[in-house]
Amino acid sequence: MATSELDSSSGIPMYKQIKEILRTEILEGVADPGTPMTEAQLLERFGVSRAPIRQALRELTNEGYVFRKQGKGTFPVSGARVDRPADLRVGGLHRYLSDRGLHPTSAVSAVSRVTPPAHVQRHLQVEQDEQLLHFSRVISVDDSPLLTADVYVRPPADFHPTAADLEASGSAFELMEQQYGILLDRAEHVTWATSASAEHAAILGVAENSPLLAIETTFFTTGGVPAGWRIALHLAEEFKYRFVENR
């Protein structure tokens, strides 16, 4: 892309414009993962000072779009578009994707009150006859499926969101926080590698038996009360999940 694509009259800082141009090229596969993005090359390309170039590269590095090789330069990251940070707010993935400029959309189906299967009952410590809110969600990024999730939530008795409500909010827990002041305190995750069934392959647009990343999550409200359970299947090459181990 040419220097003319920078708009000095837009009011958007130069580093943000440069970052967005480079981010788009990485996401669209235009940037060669084997070719470093050197400061010299970017200075010549954009015709700006070093400060906005360095700031753009710093933010792209922090967000997982590029990585630095000692003595060799900064390289685009091939594959993963989502680098989920360890300190992400519980239930905040949809908002995080939006803040990163990835344009997430959400398709929700099968919204109903059901008696959950036994393993969900155990995780959420519910009685056998207790009904939970259940729905399925597919989150897409830039119109490409990223993950499919099966969700169970312990809702207030008069909480009856529609599929449209859940799609607009991106999270049932955000809706419950807004309407009832119910806050999530923490989440526990279990993750493993798996392969796509015929059903999930069709949903995610991949071949059957393609590698997927499975993440099972139990959500807790303040006081450690189990509030929800989710199993999400992610495209393995599109998603990185960071963990922090506390002592």
UniProtKB/TrEMBL annotation:
Residues 12-79 form the HTH gntR-type domain. The keyword Transcription applies. Keywords: DNA-binding, Transcription, Transcription regulation. It comes from the Bacteria. InterPro entries: Bact_HTH_transcr_reg, Chorismate_lyase_/UTRA_dom_sf, Tscrpt_reg_HTH_GntR, UTRA, WH-like_DNA-bd_sf, WH_DNA-bd_sf. GO terms for biological process: negative regulation of DNA-templated transcription. The keyword DNA-binding applies. GO terms for molecular function: DNA binding; DNA-binding transcription factor activity. It holds the Pfam family UTRA. This is Transcriptional regulator. It comes from Corynebacterium halotolerans YIM 70093 = DSM 44683.
